[in-house]
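Two entries, shown back to back:
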Amino acid sequence: MIVIQERKIEYYNALVEKNSEYEGVFYVGVTSTGVFCRPTCPARKPKFSNCEFYESAQQALLASFRPCQRCGPLSHPNQVSDIVRFLVEAVEQNPEKRWKGQDFKALSIDESTARRQFKKRFGMTFVEYARARRMGLALKSIRSGENIINTQLDLGYDSSSGFRDAFSRIMGAPPTRLDDSRIFKAAWLDTQLGPMIAITDESKLFLLEFVDRRGLEREVERLRKRMKAAIIPGQTVPIQSLERELTQYFEGTLTDFKTPLHLVGSPFQQSVWNH
């Protein structure tokens, strides 16, 4: 936690100083305005308590922030094409829209060109960008107490399974070379206290968290990086065990969970947990 706090202070100082050396290193989400910015944004600087820092634009989008119109975090420092700029604006005009092939044709834009240019500029395709923006709105609605069924319908998902699948795809795409990575499986679990996400390998549970927990996206990203793993939707024996045990727990018939855990932490943390 100390390292994380020190990095936040470092990033905030860079933001106040409009330090151009930090361009591309982080984005800042401002909770009081709902926008995310570049480190050199000319707008009035927010309070430290109102700042959340992200390593990528996709993380900021998933946290429900929208691009700042003053600093254009999706169009700097390298200028983007008119197609990319036009599509970013189109998403902001209707962020809940689910884009399909005919939508590109209606705008006289080649879908493959949009995919290629977005991938080159932002490290994600246009569809992934639009999906991240849409899912960010969904997570914001769930956090504010909105009914999850109403949220999924408002965002154009006809079924809860489609909404859960979209969420799972957002939480982690496999890297280009899976041979060099571990494969974790993620599943959406509906509980009496609200939806949760479980992440496991084939033998142990690595993470169980409520979907509406603020900062969940970064927690998953840290797990991916620390374990050098790809996270994809799927089922495992630990997930099935956990789902069964959670049902029994809420029915009042279970108090001792048997699903194997893998506790990710420092040697000191491990010793404390074991004790």
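entry 2 starts here
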Amino acid sequence: MLVNQMKNERRSHLLKFLEKGLRYDKRKLDEFREITVELGVSKNAEGSARVKLGDTEIIAGIKMSVEKPYPDTPDDGNLMVGAELSPMSSPDFESGPPGTQAVELARVVDRGIRESKAMDTKTLCIEKGERVWTTCIDLVTINADGNLIDAASLAALAALRDTKLPEYDEKEKKLDYKSRTNKKLPLKKTPIAITVYKIGPHYLIDPTAEEEELIDARLTVTTSDGKLCAMQKGENSPLTIEDVDKMVSLAIHKAKELAKRL
């Protein structure tokens, strides 16, 4: 009960700031923290990237393999996304199997790439129904200070752009991970995920963990060249049609800004 009371007091205090168009770190409501994108942070991954969004830091690594295609897509390359919320990145995360938050993070990143048709998966087919390239994206949090979804999505996309396929001997059907080719992944689009958070009547971009803890609802909007590809709602409070319209419009506007970071 005391915890809820303290949370309500903190929420009331934050709302007073937001009514004046202010945030604790002096940013505007629709302003990102400082963003940095670094490529090639892992020597052993086929592609990798580190994204820092303020104090939030996440690494994405790409591992390529040759596998059997899914039965319903016999001539398409496979895509897999996994997320690890490391306990060293937040006291709220625990060791063990992926929890609900990690599963949601991986699925939102996966859906944005998949639904935008960012990759030309047909070109990743080696032998229809038998052998295709599988792209596995691993996301690992280094420090969690809010807005993990946007940071993870940006890191995944940057890592995909950094990826070079390893040598593959089609006769022997063997991969040589020590030899890299110059062949990059067939990326056709740039899906950018922007999560808009609602607190009271206000809409925020890129909250800190302190702000994120007090939100009523969030909507992650993934777009490519201004076209809507995927959406994911979070938290329990409902959103009206007007809310969704405003949040989607804001996300599309901010996606153009974030795309320039790549």
